[in-house]
UniProtKB/TrEMBL annotation:
Organism of this sequence: Sphingomonas caseinilyticus
SUPFAM superfamilies found in the cross-reference section: Creatinase/aminopeptidase, Creatinase/prolidase N-terminal domain
Keywords: Signal
Residue stretches making up the Peptidase M24 domain: 193-398
Signal peptide (residue range): 1-31
Protein name, as recorded: Xaa-Pro peptidase family protein
Family matches, as PANTHER family: AMINOPEPTIDASE, AMINOPEPTIDASE YPDF
Span of domain Creatinase N-terminal: 51-185
Pfam families reported for this sequence: Creatinase_N, Peptidase_M24
Keyword Signal: yes
Length: 422
């Protein structure tokens, strides 16, 4: 079972089960009756074949003979095989020309073939065989033993280590020009799935916010959001819900938190729709009028989002978006740089098949923004010991500039916002 940062740090999921109070029981039950969203089709064979063609063109352009990709989002992206990581290697070798192979344990072959979405030979290994020998043999067969071999950036060390043992002198390079070159640029079917995921998360927030009651815990609130998300068609593995002073720390606190009048409330949640993610944050004040300080910081943070949006121009370095926000914040007395009070984290991260994926909107990132790239926009403002405000909305780049998946709210009086397609 995977426990994400939200579950670990905010106390969601397993870690928070013991702190549920029952105050959410009715709202959670009602959420189960919410209407499902229309979900776009899953990624199909033609799309995956186009990905392979793009990957092979990038390999040839970068002088890479083949790439090795183990289980994870990139394996799913290229092959359709959805598999977990263990000590037993399941992965693909994609050559610059010709069909790939899938390497997997012998007893897993039928399961692998169920989800395989491309033409590929499945080569199996028994428990007493080193799977990287199969990889080395394939590279020799294709005449690639002396060519640069690209490693996907999340591959574990043992893959490189064992490959070097079975293919001495292997020239291993980064596969980033290929894998990032494909995955960072989303196609229309990918964007449609991300839009659906965003719409579901936003609707779950819209349902949950009016259900809050005094005394609710973060686990109560997370249960409502989770049930609403699942009822409307998204997969949910726990969100980040923060209350009061906990909102001053981007990933929360383990201290007990309950809803009370005038408290600052932060939702930071997402869901998965057919393998594609959403990530949205909203900040509220519950049960009382906002204080002047709460309103001021909320308004400043909302302005920070707009500054980031205006700075996101095709061809501009990704880091320039973060720089634009930070200049404004420093002029308002925050920082400087990443110091507190102010914005202690990057302005945004890449998103797609993973909630966080390359590249980031962070100082020093020189990758040029291009149509199809997708990011979060979340330049939060944090006042340690008091509270924090984070609004987070994701967007994708078009030739004309950024387009929101979810449109940020305009004020604390209307704190949800709306879908980018409505």
């Amino acid at each position: 079972m995977r426990i994400g940062r939200r579950q670990l740090l905010a106390g969601g999921g397993l870690l928070a089960a013991a702190s549920m109070t029952g105050l959410a029981r009715s709202a959670t039950a009602q959420a189960a009756e919410l209407k499902k969203f229309a979900i776009p089709p899953a990624i199909g064979r033609p799309e995956r074949l186009a990905r392979l063609a793009r990957a092979q063109a990038l390999m040839q352009a970068n002088g890479i003979g083949a790439i090795i990709v183990e289980s994870g989002a990139s394996l799913d992206y290229f092959t359709g095989v959805q598999w977990w990581r263990s000590e037993r290697l399941t992965g693909t070798v994609i050559p610059a020309t010709g069909d790939p192979i899938i390497v997997t344990p012998f007893f897993e072959k039928p399961s692998i073939e169920e989800s395989l979405g491309i033409p590929a030979e499945v080569r199996t290994w028994h428990e007493d065989v080193e799977p990287l020998k199969l990889v080395a043999d394939f590279l020799r067969e294709r005449g690639l033993a002396s060519s640069p071999i690209g490693m996907e950036e999340t591959n574990r060390f043992f893959i490189l280590d064992k490959l070097n043992q079975h293919l001495p002198g292997a020239r291993v390079v980064s596969a980033n020009p290929v894998v990032r070159g494909c995955r960072m640029i989303k196609t229309a079917p990918e964007l449609a799935l991300m839009q659906a995921a965003s719409d579901i998360t936003l609707a779950a927030f819209a349902y949950t916010w009016p259900q809050l009651k005094a005394g609710m815990t973060v686990a109560d609130i997370d249960a409502i959001i989770g049930q609403a998300t699942r009822a409307m068609g998204g997969s949910y593995d726990g969100g980040l819900v923060l209350l009061g002073e906990g909102t001053a720390y981007p990933h929360g606190t383990r201290k007990p938190q309950v809803v009370e009048r005038g408290i600052n409330v932060l939702f930071d949640c997402g869901c998965d729709v057919r393998g594609y993610k959403s990530d949205i944050s909203r900040s509220f004040v519950w049960g009382a009028d906002p204080t002047p300080e709460q309103r001021k910081v909320w308004d400043q943070m909302a302005r920070g989002q707009q500054i980031a949006n205006q700075a996101a121009k095709v061809g501009a370095p990704a880091g320039s978006v973060d720089d634009a926000v930070r200049r404004a914040y420093e002029s308002w007395g925050y920082g400087p740089g990443y110091k507190l009070p102010g914005l202690s984290h990057r302005t945004g991260h890449g998103i797609g098949m993973e909630g966080h994926e390359p590249i980031n909107l962070v100082h020093g990132e020189m990758t040029a923004l291009a149509p199809g790239m997708c990011f979060s926009n979340e330049p939060g403002i944090y006042l340690p010991g008091k509270f924090g405000i984070r609004l987070e909305d994701c967007f994708y780049m078009t030739a004309a500039g950024p387009k929101w998946f979810s449109v940020p709210p305009k004020s604390l009086e209307e704190p949800i916002g709306h879908s980018g397609v409505s």
